[in-house]
Amino acid sequence: EGDVGEATLLANNNLIYTLKDGAGVYTSGFAGDKPKLALTSDFKSWLIQPISNTSVLLSTKPSSKAEGYVYTLNLTNGNLTKLFGPLMGLTALSNSDGKRLLYANTTGGKVVLTAQSLTTKTSTNILPATLPVKCVWSKSVGSIIICGVPNSGLGLEVPDLWYQGVTDYTDKIWRFNVDTDTAEILLDPKSEFGQEVDMTNLTLDTEEK
Question: Is residue 100 a contact partner of residue 115, using CB atoms and an 8 Å limit?
């Protein structure tokens, strides 16, 4: 028992969550019934992204001033597999089957964004760079990522200042194809609608339009 830190739903509507005063990751029914400890670790601040009913992506909360790590956690057997780290300012976004990963880290004060195939071990640098939390992977075309990208770049001390609300952005929507190494602007909300939008947690409709 305790105050919940991070929490999200698996596809089967079970909960996966952390506690603010503990270092564990837990699963339970939707109403919090039948809680089960899935992981005990020294880290207390996790970001959780479900991949399937039995697997999640765990990332340490990012800072440009601290080394971060990204893991997959098997909820069935508790196995924790390190994917990346230690890297400064590390954040990540898995695609729907967990075979591709988009991750950003801070190098020389700037954010570097990379798409990585976990099966072939090939990687593609994404330009212009943005943060994975501003992106979404296509489900219909596995190599495509849709992102909100700041018009004037990310700036310094990212993602710290953005998470703190000190910095905000005006984004365009870009489409990246990591297999063909191409990038194109899909929409500029500022010029099209006169709206400045700082995007996060993007989703796609069923037709991905």
Answer: yes
Q: Which residue has the tokens 């849709």?
A: 146
Q: Which residues, at least 6 apart from 118, have a Cβ–Cβ distance to it below 8 Å?
A: 83, 98, 99, 100, 101
Q: What is the CA radius of gyration of the chain?
A: 17
- Count CA atoms closer than 13 A to 21's CA, side-chain side: 3
Question: In this predicted model, what pLDDT tens digit does every residue of 96-129 receive, in sequence order?
Answer: 999 999 999 998 889 999 999 999 999 999 999 9
Q: How far apart are CA 148 and CA 129, in angstroms?
A: 10
Is the predicted pLDDT of residue 2 greater than 70, yes or no?
Answer: no
CA contacts within 13 A on the Cβ side of 79: 7
64, 159 contact by CB (below 8 A): yes
Question: How do strand 135-137 and strand 144-150 relate by DSSP bridges?
Answer: antiparallel
Residue type, 24: G
C-alpha–C-alpha distance, residues 129 and 133, integer Å: 12
Best CA proximity match to 58, nearest among 76, 77, 79, 88: 79
User: Do residues 75 and 54 make contact, with C-beta atoms less than 8 angstroms apart?
Assistant: yes
**Strand 46-52, strand 4-9: pairing:** unpaired
User: Which helix (H) or strand (E) is 191 found in, with range?
Assistant: helix 189-193
Task: Please state the pTM of the whole predicted model.
Answer: 0.91
CA proximity to 111, closest of 87, 130, 134, 125? 130
